[in-house]
């Protein structure tokens, strides 16, 4: 069984990013609040109209309470769902259902992190995972390296194919003034990079940056009155299959194989209808796994699919058009930035704008390939 919300009944009416790259002197909460204020203004609304608050901060488990207080709000509903980088796609699904039901009228989904200026690092101790800790893995890099190794063994995927993902992301970033990592990056540069957790090198890993993002959702009738074109939510679905990578049933298949088809069904489309794809690329193997699981190529073909610049500018499928987590930004959790880029593409205002985008997919990953969530956005012409 599975439920859904009406296709296109709600829409993103406002969006913003703030402080991408380095934002010294700001707390994560302050950054999230600033992005929220910018997104509300972008929607042509006032902060006092926000009655649904959705947030997941890296350093505050009660972020909903903190942000409501900071902004002087008394929301009807606050959601601090924490599934890692997929949380924000789940926020979209929850907000869409609540807006459709009339429980709230205006939802603000926001995130901020000062991970870079605050001295945070990508690699942290495993902590409470007793089954993996004896092997002293680098968390989370070794988990993704395990998935990559299995994909190599099972399907013949190569480090050169992983490098194609990193090189494509950099090519997109070089056209995006917001992107933190700029400059040339070639296949040989990635292959020669320092190995972190075999077969994952430092160039196969996402950035460690600061950054904040926010979107405002309303019902479609109100969104049509906003200053910018509405971005209808056509479908959204999430799936969680495990937490620790050691409990993953198949290291080459993620829960995106469930969230994707459910989101497509809600939207009434298939992978071939998607004009632009924004994926959570914490590591290069992610892009390959998600392209397969979301139906853009058969299982096992992801490595070959990305060869020869296929997902780079000018390739057959635009993927991570802002530079992704690999080259644009990755402030602890990237999911909301993928949603913002997908919505910008629909609006026609992205830095690397793809002509005629009517359908955009944003996909989030949480934990160690643990939680997957897919959002499909459309233009006004799709409803």
Task: Please provide a brief summary of the model.
This protein is 32% helix and 19% strand. With 383 residues, the protein is α/β, with parallel strands linked by helices. It is globular, with a radius of gyration of 19 Å.
Q: Span from first to last CA?
A: 25 Å
CATH architecture of the largest domain: 3-Layer(aba) Sandwich
CATH superfamily of the largest domain: Thiolase/Chalcone synthase
Which radius of gyration do the C-alpha atoms yield?
A: 19 Å
Helix content: 25-40%
| Residue-averaged pLDDT | 95
Q: What is the fold-level CATH name, i.e. the topology of the largest domain?
A: Peroxisomal Thiolase, Chain A, domain 1
Strand order of the largest sheet: 3-2-4-7-1-8-11-10-9
How many H/I helical runs? Answer: 12
* Biggest sheet layout: 9 strands, mixed
- Give the beta-strand count: 11
Shape verdict: globular
What is the helix/strand order?
Answer: EHEHEHEHHHEEEHEHEHHHHEE
What percent strand? Answer: 15-25%
Uncertain spans: 122-127
Structural class: alpha/beta
Number of domains: 2
Instruction: Supply the CATH class of the largest domain.
Output: Alpha Beta
Domain Thiolase C-terminal: 237-378
GO molecular function: acetyl-CoA C-acyltransferase activity
Protein name: Acetyl-CoA acetyltransferase
InterPro entries: Thiolase (IPR002155), Thiolase-like (IPR016039), Thiolase_C_2 (IPR055140)
